[in-house]
Amino acid sequence: MKKIATTEVPINEVIAQRWSPRAFDSHYVMTEDSVKSLFEAARWAPSCYGDQPWQFVLFKKEDATAWTSALNCLSVNNQNWAMDASILIVVCANKNFNHNKEPNRWAHYDTGAASENICLQATSIGLSAHQMGGFDQDKIRNLSNIPLKFDILSCMVVGKSLDESRLSKVQKDKEGQVRSRKALKDIYFINEWK
């Protein structure tokens, strides 16, 4: 299913096509090159001092034990649809700069840019990504041995969105909802906050 953004002015096609489905093809297996391309895209995101504060933990559906353990860290609502994706990525940000160990107040911002690169790369190769905040941080930290110097920002699944002809009635209702955003004029000011 495609849901192209209705924009007020033209934007890049990949950005317009990117959206977050909740219906994935449970039989689709990503190739290793596709997985690596996601992280290569993240690697080239901008970051303060070029510090690249992001770190990711990857879970693949093929590793059933680890996959099930990771899914069990998600909220029940997210588990219900995320289980059909191909991979799950835990998104983490180093709270301190690598070069001087001082606090990095841009770490979350930079890691968000890297995560968006993953989403856009997924879209560009015919896949979809969905980022989630509904997960148990302590469970995922313990499962993955994530050091305390890293904040866990989100979990993200990537896979092939389910063909529209295979959607259930419930899935059609959810996936068919109209995409909406604030009007362009409502998201920025010129020269001063108004």
Q: TL;DR of this structure?
A:
The protein has 194 residues and is α+β, with helices and mostly antiparallel strands. It has helices at 13-17, 32-43, 64-71, 76-82, 107-124, 137-144, 169-175; strands at 54-60, 87-94, 128-132, 150-159.
Q: What is the structural class?
A: alpha+beta
The overall number of domains is: 1
Q: What is the helix content?
A: 25-40%
Total number of beta strands: 4
Provide mean pLDDT, rounded: 95
- As an assembly, this protein is single chain
Strand order of the largest sheet: 1-2-4-3
CATH topology: NADH Oxidase
* Backbone shape: globular
Unreliable stretches: none
CATH top level label: Alpha Beta
Please describe the biggest sheet, giving its number of strands, its sense, and whether it closes into a barrel: 4 strands, antiparallel
Enumerate how many helices there are, as a single number: 7
Q: Give the SSE string.
A: HHEHHEHEHEH
